Amino acid sequence: MPIGAVRFGLIGSNGATTSLVDDDNTEFLLIADQGKIDVSGNYALSEVGSVLVENIGISKKGLNSTQSFSFNSSNNYFKFGTSINPIYGIGDFTIESWVYFDSSYSGLSQRYVFTTKAGGPQPGLELAIFGVELSAGVAPNSYQKTIIFPQNEWVFLAFSRKSGAGYLYVNSTLSDTGINSGNNTGGGTEQPSIGNRTADPSFYLGGKIAELRISNVARYDNVNSPVL
């Protein structure tokens, strides 16, 4: 398959093993080893710019993918053609991803891993880096967790909302918890995106994503943590 090519298929269709797998609660799953994979068949995902596929080349506990999508912090990202219904409203969900922030990431910039927001203070979901803060959850009560992210290192990020409470994990450590009962209405006509906020070109991700999964249940809480 050529670099940057798009391939849809069932999980495991090329024999790859991954840490984030398809199951009955998976709504969307992105895995670089297998191209772009749309579990439900309803979420059209397109490239803006050219998102290259690169070999990871290192071993990281819990990360079984051998390839990643590369984001250049200037002009490339993924955009959904339709909304991902389970993450909207006030219900339970989980978003989790293996992310690598490279040297093109500025500590003073905002970089989106995933968002449903078009911009401003809309009550949308975000998983993003704001300077030295990790922002996750649904506005207006999303979390702003101060954390120093290492560059050039793979990090596992996960946010679960369960019965109006949010649980934010960095690797297998619970980094923050609290009320997160906001109604995610998204950003008007803008659709969710990976690697940027679609209405504002200044928020491009500088780094890589190997895997990203969105689920219609809260997979993690203060008792159940990610096993890496």
3D architecture notes:
The protein has strands at residues 26-31, 45-48, 52-55, 67-72, 77-80, 93-101, 110-115, 125-130, 133-138, 143-146, 154-162, 165-170, 173-179, 193-194, 206-215. The protein is mainly beta. The chain has one domain (26-215): Jelly Rolls (Sandwich). Strands 1, 3, 4, 6, 11, 12, 13 and 15 form an eight-stranded antiparallel beta sheet that branches. A seven-stranded antiparallel beta sheet has the order 2-5-14-7-8-9-10, with no helix packed on it. A hairpin with a 4-residue loop joins strand 9 (133-138) and strand 10. The protein is globular and about 40 Å long. The model is unreliable at 1-18 (pLDDT under 50).
Write a concise keyword list for the protein shown above.
mainly beta, Jelly Rolls, about 0% helix, single chain, about 230 residues, seven-stranded antiparallel β-sheet, disordered N terminus, eight-stranded antiparallel β-sheet
Topology:
Elements: E1 26-31, E2 45-48, E3 52-55, E4 67-72, E5 77-80, E6 93-101, E7 110-115, E8 125-130, E9 133-138, E10 143-146, E11 154-162, E12 165-170, E13 173-179, E14 193-194, E15 206-215
Antiparallel strand pairs: 1-15, 2-5, 3-4, 4-15, 5-14, 6-11, 6-15, 7-8, 7-14, 8-9, 9-10, 11-12, 12-13
Describe the structure in brief.
A hairpin with a 2-residue loop joins strand 12 and strand 13. The N terminus is likely disordered.
Question: Could you give the distance between the termini?
Answer: 29 Å
Q: Outline the biggest β-sheet.
A: 8 strands, antiparallel
Q: What does the overall shape look like?
A: globular
| Beta-strand percentage range | 35-45%
What is the overall number of helices? 0
**Mean pLDDT value:** 76
Topology pattern, helix = H, strand = E? EEEEEEEEEEEEEEE
Count up the domains: 1
Query: Helical residue percent?
Result: under 10%
Sheet/helix structural class = mainly beta
Radius of gyration: 16 Å
